[in-house]
Each structure stands twice: as structure tokens, then as C-alpha cells.
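Thread: "does anyone have the structure for this chain?"

Original post by V.I.:
We have the sequence but no experimental structure in hand. Need at least a predicted one for the grant figures.
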Amino acid sequence: MEKPRRRFYELRPFAVPLSYLWWLFNVVNVILWAPFMGVFRLLTRHNDPGRHRIGRILRNAGVVGIKLNPFWDFRVIDTVRPDARRPYLFVSNHRSMADVYMLSLLPWEMKFLSKDSVFRIWLLGWEMKLAGDIPIARGDRESARRAMLDMRQRLLDKSSVVVFPEGTRSADGSLGKFRDGAFRLAISVGVDIVPLAISGTETALPKHSLVFQRTTATVEVLPPVSVAGLTAADAPALAERVRREIARALHVELEPS
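Reply from O.Q.:
Generated one for you, C-alpha cells below.
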């Protein structure tokens, strides 16, 4: 198959300044979003305890970023249409920092479990906390315990949560083993799991680079997996089942467990 012709802005003399302009826009976007989010939260803190609306405002900033990025063609495939009035544990594979932007295209609000280092970014971290996102420090058991408690509270407040159970980005497109902590939580709270299969974002923003590449990527929403009748002892098998569902959608071969 013949490769599509490169557009002028894909040439490095154009791609580099365009990429840096996009990053500059994101800085400005975060600054401009902050006062609006602060005022909106003050006005809605009593009638929106689950922070659904303030969360959507932050995700919409990501949508704007996608629309203004000439290198990205991100698409949602959703024939399932989960009930937006119910909380779910959304489980996604992880290929790139661009995955967070991709997930902002989904039409329902989800609280993100994210590295605590992101929450230390000036203004952005404050906005994420305001939206109800949850920090976690890698390798810190106490941080993981607090994150699980926060996730539980979000789910009990009828807010969905999204996690990347591989724990880190895949360097080669493979699908790593899923940690089962979030699956135990879903079972204990009684919320179903919706798998999300992200494909293509690994080329959208290569690791350790700020320069974009032309990319078509998708996120596919897969049918919910029920936790009815399961116990904590079933969490590892549940995690593996969801992992296989995502692998099937991505056409990825899994190594034997």
C-alpha cells in the first residue's frame, strides 16, 4: 500500500516550531482556564458534589487541544454507549502521553488516576484537583492506599474513574500485565468495568520528544464487564479477562500467563 504523501508541516523545519506553538497554546490554555474553573466550582460546589460539570470543563480543554493540533486525527469508536448516569471503572491500555487527550473526547465525565508529579505542575495540578482527579506516587504504598480510598469515594459519589492498569506506557505496542487493585475496588463497590482500547497514539508524541508526528488514532469503547457475584479473590482473573478483551480489540497477541 502506498504511503500517504507527507504534508508540508510534517517536514522538521515546520514540525518543530508548530509543535512548540502548540505547547505554548496549552500553557496559555491552562492559565486562562484556571479563573473560570475556580469561579465555576464556587458556584456549583453545593449542587454538584460529584464534580461532574467542573470535570467536563477540564476535559473540554483537552478537546480544544486536539482540535488545534494539525498533526492529530483522533477518533472515538463507540457502539456500546454506556449509561452516562451510572458510575463505571473505565480501564484503558496506555501507549502515549497523548492518551489523556484522546480520552477527553469521550462524552462522559471520568476522574483520572494520575502520577503525583503531574499534580505538581503549576496551575494544571490545581485544576486537576478541582476536577476531582486522583494523584498516586509510583512505588509508594501509602500513596496507593490513599488513592484507592479516593477512587472508592468518587465511585460512591456516582463519578466514573479511569485507570491505566499497566502502570506505565508500552514502549513497543505490547499489552503489559494488569495490576488488580482497581479491579478489587470495582468488585467491592459493585461497579461494572468498561474496557477501552487505544490504538495509534504511540506515534502521536514519541516518548522523550515534544515534536509531533502525523497520526490517526482511535479509542474503542468495549462492552461492559459485570462484577456481579464476584469476590476479591476473583480480581486477578477479572483483570486478565479485561486485558484479553482489550488485546482482542487491538489484535495484539498476549504471552501465556
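V.I.: this helps a lot. The radius of gyration is 18 Å.
O.Q.: and Residues 11 and 99 are 24 Å apart (CA to CA).
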